Amino acid sequence: MWKLLYLFLTLCQLLCCQAEATAAPVTPQSCSLDCIQQGGPACEYCRITRSDVRKALGFKSMERFGSCIPWPCFELLGNEDPKICQHYVQAPNDVKVEFLNDSNSQSDTIIVSWKPSYYGIAFLRGFQVSLQALGGTSVACQLFLFHRNLSLPTSHAQRVYKSDPFPGLSLGSQYAVTVMALPVPEEWERFYRSEIFSTRSCAEKNGFEQCKNDWYPKHIEVQQEGSAITVTFNLAPPNLGIRSYFSLCYINGRKKYTNIIPDLTTNKTHHSYQLSDLQEGTNYTCEIAANEVDAVRKMFNVHVVHTQKDIINKHEEVGNQEELVSLRKNRLTPPRLLICYSSHEGPAHVKAVMQLGVFIQQHMATQVCLDLWDSLSVAEEGSMAWHCRQIRESDFVLVMCSRGFNQRPKPEDDDGDEDQAYSSDAIIQLIGAEVGRAKAWGQDLSKYMAAIFEYSEETDIPTELRLISHYVLTSDLPLLFSHLHGVALHRPGAYLKIDHISEKGFAKVPAGAALQWAIYEAGMALEGKGQHSLEEGD
Questions:
Q1: Is residue 12 part of a domain?
Q2: In this structure, are 300 and 328 located in the same domain?
Q3: Between vectors from CA 352 to CA 350 and to CA 358, what angle results, nearest 5°?
Q4: Of 520, 378, 528, which Cα lies nearest the Cα of 454?
Q5: Domain match, 251 and 339 both
Q6: Is the whole model's pTM more than 0.70, yes or no?
């Protein structure tokens, strides 16, 4: 009988503890000082205002504490029994910061929650919560006290206590919140818990389109008619109050600035402006942004084609006769070429790929698409999604093959190139699958090409890409040009000589010289890397 009664009481106690653990969070009450001091049951967890403390300590005493509320345990609770404010109480646990939804788009509001420690919980008199901006002097404090007759059981250590809201916190800023268990005797430690947190950015709280500093044009279209270059972009939402924009175009260390003031009475969603005095046959890197401090800039490329037809000199092997042959007339815009590569060989190889893209765009009448030039879109979409879209939208895809396509990084090589290497491998598998599918269905494979630089080997071309045309660069630049534009380089008794694209002539232009030097540096870097690997193997 007694055993059954004991088990019943134990079960009841466990159920009570569980009920306490799952109880709703305890929020502050508005209480009078008399209720707290007399121990009334209606003032279990009370907020103490500055006026309460001023009433207890006096106006002059309050000035010492600035904007923070001090902990006046002795004044409020300890006059009759000083020991009530001296017993050890350990720091709270599980301090958390919760963001509240408010109507102010310029700031954040938080509430702090925590659980009391069960060490000394029977002598717990309250909590003080302080909030301070990191690197600043701004401090806000809240004080919460229990009435003098309250003694909490150990099971209440699972209760969650909450502060009042802390409003008006600057967006995108760091703060430190500290929760102290009261009383706070000077001779004991571990009486508080601090957490550092960051408020939300404007975009996180309000959405990208509602933030002046985070907004940038997402949709940019470049068109050329004759010698006129027209750029069209989407305007910021009217509620941001952005009235002007600017554009910068770069080439050879020079900048061209364009001030843009749209006429919102004619079109509130898009605006077109003209870029003037740009050199023909030149590739510009441009950016556009709202005319605001620290506004995000969107990069785009402008390739200014010649206003006259692209001309190729056709030389006869006998008689030195020349004919003029124009490029295909049915193409209104330059062919779009996506270049894929692996960064596993290091920055020198990546630089060589980038210089190849510059040369092709400037001297081969082709629009080049390269992830290095569109890093913002790559970050927004993700590398795989970006490459999949570019493969769909491009006329041609050129895979610059290297050892990195056949070498996965070792698991212990935990560096920034690992994700890129795996991404490159996945892209090559994707292109290989497309090639295999096109071959199986008898479709044209000319969209896809593979190439290597002189410092690579034919075996660096993956098996999946052996079905498509492959070139060695820079010696096969004329063949690559022929592939992109559908122009035959040879006929019986004659051949085409293309300015700045021959094996020897390409280095006579700045972009070609830069490409030649980048290939040389990449070859030397890979040779040094291979020698280092051999020495480590010894």
A1: no
A2: no
A3: 105
A4: 520
A5: no
A6: no
